[in-house]
Amino acid sequence: MLSEQVYARLREAIMRGSYAPGQALKPQDLAKEQGVSLAVVREALVRVVGDGLADRLPNRGFAVPAFSDRRWQEIAEARRTVEPVVLRMSIERGDVDWEARVQAAHHRLARTPAFAPEEGEYFSETWAEAHRIFHRTLLEGCGNPVLLEGFDRMWSASELARRWSAHRTPDRDHLGEHRQLAEAALDRDADAAAEILTRHLTLTAAGLVDAHDER
């Protein structure tokens, strides 16, 4: 489907940083670049807005979200409030199969390079997917699909900002943070796991503030 192709290309371009925070996404220009109709471009843009990767501005068209503290910090606050609670439930309810999935997801994440030269300065698509799977797998032991759907929405909403901030914290020990999180969860130490996850999410939020200040 043509709109699906345009959507996929536009989404990838935003994720790769081809558009700066706050930059306008002009339907006419995009239609010309892509060689498609305005209707197709608008349909793709509406989907991108739904993903949280663009804003629809009253009487001003579409734009990449601005790198504002409030937008990203509110998402971070929501994740710090919800995810440690769900992780506690997951540790309490998760079975041996859940433990095996956590181990496998962590192994995949640890063995996947975070950056690929051909994909620019942001996290690679392969690492980003391994990262998502690891965090989601940690929570899947809760057995509550409604909570997991909430995680999926918040994760999608924060993915763009996470990529923007990736190169702003080069000294951050992502491998160590994820290893500690996996170990605490598999040790069934809910208090430690919740504390580690909260700190992990807080460091990401702090990186976003730093990135915004530098801009």
Automatic annotation (TrEMBL):
Q: Does the keyword DNA-binding apply?
A: yes
An annotated Gene Ontology molecular function? DNA-binding transcription factor activity
Q: What is this protein called?
A: DNA-binding transcriptional regulator, GntR family
Fetch the InterPro entries from UniProt: GntR_C, TF_FadR/GntR_C, Tscrpt_reg_HTH_GntR, WH-like_DNA-bd_sf, WH_DNA-bd_sf
Species of the source: Saccharopolyspora kobensis
A Pfam family per the record: GntR
Q: Which PANTHER family match?
A: GLUCONATE OPERON TRANSCRIPTIONAL REPRESSOR (PTHR43537:SF24), TRANSCRIPTIONAL REGULATOR, GNTR FAMILY (PTHR43537)
Q: Which SMART domains match?
A: FCD, HTH_GNTR
Its organism's taxonomic lineage begins at: Bacteria, Bacillati, Actinomycetota, Actinomycetes, Pseudonocardiales
Domain (HTH gntR-type): residue spans on this chain = 1-67
Which residues constitute the signal peptide according to the record?
A: none
The UniProt entry, under Gene3D superfamilies, shows: GntR ligand-binding domain-like, Winged helix-like DNA-binding domain superfamily/Winged helix DNA-binding domain
Instruction: Report if keyword Transcription is assigned.
Output: yes
> What keywords appear on the UniProt entry?
DNA-binding, Transcription, Transcription regulation
